[in-house]
Amino acid sequence: MPGHSKDLTRLRIALTTFFALDGFIFAGWVVRIPAIKEQTGASASTLGLALLGVSAGAVVTMMFTGRLCRRYGSHPVTVVCGILLSLSVALPPLAHSTWALGAVLLVFGAAYGGINVAFNSAAVDLVAVLRRPIMPSFHAAFSLGGMIGAGLGGLVAGSLSPTRHLLGLTVIGLLVTAVAGRALLRHDSPVPQSAPVPQSAALPQSVPGQPEEHAPRRADPRTRRLVVVFGLIALCTAYGEGALADWGTLHLEQDLDAHPGIAAAGYTCFALAMTIGRLCGTTLLERLGRTRTVVAGGTMAAVGMLVGSLAPSVWAALLGFAVTGIGLANIFPIAVERAGALAGPSGVAIASTFGYGGMLLGPPAIGFMADWFSLPIALTSVATLAAVAAVIGYGTRRATAD
Question: Which of 93, 101, 178, 303 has minimal Cβ neighbours within 10 Å of its Cβ?
Fold first, then answer.
């Protein structure tokens, strides 16, 4: 058993590395968007259309990747997608028109969506074996990787061209994938020992993320409904993340007259708070359980966002953003883990697709509501959906069995 424990530890480290790599590469691309926009001569509207390539590629690939994980296992699919993600991030600087940029971003988005489903499926397997709620720690690694990638990108933006910078990310990505991928491929997806499963949870008896002979039974209608419900929880969370990423800085600068440097710290406060919340997520889940964590987190995020959007001072708004980040931190990981436990990689794919859809829905929805009402009022929709996530989470308390 000591050897088995060491294998699981190595597996956890390898998976954590892939989560961090994903955040690192994606953030590295995001900070070079302004330079790519200038290179292609795209207007704001045409750039927006090109950026939809990332979303379209991710959403389409997510459902397809779930099937690949069921057939071949989540570990090989994670490694293949890691290679594709590392290679595809070097493509945007090679585009010199918005149409070409949209095409290469479709490839990049496909790799990004694929690896998200694959390593989340692998993480669900490991959670089932360890019988500890460690899912938030993986997502904390993603957040940390993103912060490092964005910070490094900001440092080198003035001295390196987008081509050299993103090619450097390709080299780093391939090296990390080679090292972490060896550890991942050395072990099959772990199979938990049989344990009594609460009837109310309607969980499959076998393990998600395995090849076909170990795949979960075909989900019954009740299970499929539960997976969709957890997907809605993921959507409510990701909506807020997308909205704050695109509109938080503008709210501070436009509505509260914050200095541009202070305004830029708005999303940083939110992202840092979310990272801290995820680092504490396992301890929180062990003490409170899934239901209480979702309810408390959704409630905290709702209150925090009301303060962040309606407070008359910059510092109160920053505090509100931070509270929102802590509140939302663990809801998405819980939703993905529950969906995966219920329906294997297909469940992860569905919840991830809902969540990604929420992240896409947030920014344009806020924009429309800001035109109709005002930006502060529009941002209260983040609080509303956080409260909805808390209510839904309470309604699924029997399904989470804690």
Answer: 178
Which CA distances in Å does 206 have to 183, 212, 227, 351, 396?
A: 24, 11, 17, 20, 22
d(CA 313, CA 317): 6
Contact 378, 366 (CB under 8 A): yes
CB 379 within 8 A of CB 309: yes
The whole-number pLDDT of residue 200 equals 37
Q: Which residue has the tokens 């409260």?
A: 387
Work out the burial of residue 305: count CB atoms within 10 Å of its CB; fewer than 13 is exposed, 13-18 middle, 19 or more buried.
buried
Q: Which pair of structure tokens corresponds to residue 349? A: 């794919």
Cβ proximity of 149 and 26 under 8 Å? yes
Residue ranges, the chain, pLDDT below 70: 1-4, 44, 191-219, 246, 264, 399-402
Q: Is 384 exposed, middle or buried (0-12, 13-18, 19+ CB in 10 A)?
A: middle
How many Cβ atoms sit within 10 Å of the Cβ of residue 175? Answer: 11
Q: With helix as H, strand as E and coil as C, how does 135-191 read?
A: HHHHHHHHHHHHHHHHHHHHHHCCCCCHHHHHHHHHHHHHHHHHHHHHHHHCCCCCC
Q: What is the DSSP letter of 54?
A: H
Task: Determine the Cα–Cα distance for residues 263 and 316; give it in Å rounded to an integer.
Answer: 13
Per-residue pLDDT of 146-156, as tens digits, reads 888 888 887 88
Question: Cα separation of 207 and 230, whole Å?
Answer: 19
- DSSP code per residue over 282-300: HHHHHHHHHHHHHHHHHHH
Give the 3-state secondary structure of 167-183: HHHHHHHHHHHHHHHHH
Whose tokens are 């795949």? That residue is: 215
Cα radius of gyration rounded to whole Å, the chain: 20
The label of the residue with tokens 């309604």 reads 395
Residue 205's identity, in one-letter code, is Q
Detail the DSSP E strand segments found in 205-308. none
